[in-house]
Write a structure and sequence with these properties.
This protein is an all-alpha fold. It has helices at 21-44, 48-67, 74-108, 113-116, 120-141, 144-157, 169-189, 197-217, 223-258, 263-294, 297-307.
Length: 319
């Protein structure tokens, strides 16, 4: 099951490589702030999809500040990373429970009917924990700390460009992307048969941030970047499915160990854990192929070259 987050609904317009790089980062922050604001009513009402989109917007905001770190005041960058991590944790607890609930509902159809009938207490436990997590998230969204975060981000998005200028986006973009690309490739090449789930999760975070960074810079006619983004999305999908299966299995194990379950529900949990373990092994086996398609030095060079050129109009139209 693919759990890669779709693009934020408040899609940013494709930037021109001829515009100031400082304008691009401010536009990206403004776009994702609008996406964040658009989800709040739905989140407060407890709806599943707005929680998902709030998590996506929060992650894209974090990715924007990582990508454009050289163009952001250091104090603001440090503060923003800490505060967005705080917000992301609050949103993530609710979202993870939603994904767990969806996964268990899907897996339950593959369990023996007699065992399936025993899984009611698990569903109740997830609902109760989600209710508590949503209450905590809504307190977070109503807090002065969250309002200060929003105000700081809005002030930055609306601020004037520095008088000295940050340079043209086409000049800056390859330099901004190259460290993220190199870090991702180094991390992926270190993966081996005994790599831990925690290490694979860190690679997943790098892949996701690189993907979000490139999406914020992509022009409508960037063919190499579009190809690389497809490969990043595929790898993120594989790593995401693997990580979810591992963490969901661990959640069920902890629940079984800390709750006095009757024999029937205990057997049902065991059957779900077995299915999740099998899913994790299958996804782990898919990693080498997905990684091999991403680790393409020629494609990476083409993308970095593309980042320096304004392709807001088709090459054939430039006479």
């Amino acid at each position: 099951m693919s759990l890669v987050a779709p693009a934020s609904r408040a899609a940013a317009p494709a930037p021109s490589r001829d515009e100031p790089a400082g304008l691009t980062v401010r536009s990206a922050v403004a776009t994702h702030l609008r996406g964040l604001a658009a989800t709040q009513d739905g989140v407060r009402a407890g709806e599943v999809e707005p929680v998902h989109q709030m998590r996506v917007s929060t992650r894209r905001l974090r990715a924007s500040f990582v990508l454009f770190a050289p163009l952001v005041p250091k104090a603001l960058a440090r503060l923003t990373e800490r505060e967005l991590a705080w917000l992301g944790t609050a949103v993530g607890v609710v979202r993870d429970l939603d994904v767990l609930n969806e996964t268990i509902a899907a897996l339950a159809t593959r369990v023996d009917p007699q065992l399936r009938a025993t899984l009611g207490p698990i569903a109740v436990a997830i609902r109760e924990r989600r209710t508590a997590a949503l209450e905590s998230l809504n307190k977070t969204l109503g807090s002065a700390r969250y309002r200060r975060l929003r105000a700081r981000l809005e002030a930055f998005a609306g601020s004037r460009l520095p008088a000295h200028g940050d340079g043209r986006l086409g000049e800056m973009a390859p330099r901004l992307v190259r460290p993220l690309l190199r870090a991702t490739i180094r991390a992926g090449r270190r993966v081996h048969a005994d790599t831990t789930p925690a290490e694979l999760h860190r690679l997943r975070v790098r892949v996701k941030r690189l993907r979000y960074a490139l999406e914020s810079l992509r022009g409508p006619h960037d063919k190499a970047m579009t190809k690389l983004l497809r490969r990043l999305a595929r790898l993120q999908d594989v790593l995401g499915d693997y990580q979810d299966a591992v963490t969901q299995g661990a959640w069920l194990r902890t629940h079984a160990e800390t709750t006095l379950l009757a024999p029937g529900p205990l057997l049902g949990v065991g059957a779900l854990m077995q299915l999740l373990s099998r899913r994790a092994r299958r996804r782990r086996k898919r990693f080498p192929q997905a990684w091999g398609r991403l680790d393409d030095a020629k494609l990476h060079r083409r993308v970095l070259d593309e980042l320096a050129v304004d392709r807001s109009t088709p090459p054939s139209a430039i006479a």
